[in-house]
Design a protein that fits this description.
The chain is mainly beta. Helix content is 10%, strand content 31%. It folds into 2 domains: 64 residues; 108 residues, UDP N-Acetylglucosamine Acyltransferase, domain 1 (3 Solenoid).
């Protein structure tokens, strides 16, 4: 099956650079150009796809618009360190250069771990997780669906984060987050 991408923004281009190959890129029909293909032309019988949209919720919305029976591929960069056999990574996920995933880690479907993300032991991450460069998730952390971590943010060990949370750039999560919203600062506090 031929590998293709859905999206043509910065993340799509980073995925191709890290994969070391140029892939055909699909976009919504109204945005197709001479460099992209309309998603209505996607061939589920001959193509597997990765959705390369950085925003967790928009990535989910794009996946929901794909035809039933769509197959997804994942990519793990060769410099990523997957340190244990007891690690699961869901379909459609991207694990970028220099990521470290230690032991007993479960990562859901359609995750995006950008360059240099570290995930500690005994951590469970649900679907549509987005971690921008240099995010550090300590051990024994539980993260819900549609969670986005900005560049250089981190979370202390033994923390639970509910669904639909955005952690801002350079923020540090030091206590459980039980209410959806946007959190920023050190310690991270809800700002919206």
């Amino acid at each position: 099956m031929k590998k293709v991408l859905f999206g043509y923004g910065g993340h799509a281009r980073e995925v191709m650079v890290q994969m070391g190959e140029v892939l055909e890129c699909y976009v919504d029909d109204e945005y197709s150009t001479e460099k992209t293909k309309p998603i209505s032309k996607f061939d589920i019988n001959n193509e597997v796809i990765m959705v390369t949209i950085g925003d967790s919720k928009k990535r989910k919305e794009a996946i929901d618009r794909l035809p039933k029976g769509t197959k997804f591929f994942s990519f793990i960069h060769p410099t990523a360190q997957i340190m244990d056999d007891n690690i699961s990574i869901g379909e459609g996920s991207f694990i970028g250069a220099n990521c470290i995933i230690t032991t007993n880690v479960n990562i859901g479907k359609h995750a995006l771990l950008n360059r240099g993300v570290h995930i500690g032991h005994d951590t469970t991450i649900s679907d549509f997780f987005s971690a921008m460069p240099n995010v550090v998730i300590s051990g024994n952390v539980k993260i819900g669906n549609y969670v986005y971590f900005g560049t250089n943010s981190s979370v202390r060990e033994k923390i639970t984060i509910c669904d639909n949370v955005t952690i801002g750039l350079n923020s540090g999560v030091v206590k459980d987050i039980n209410e959806e919203g946007i959190y920023a600062g050190l310690p991270a506090k809800r700002i919206k």
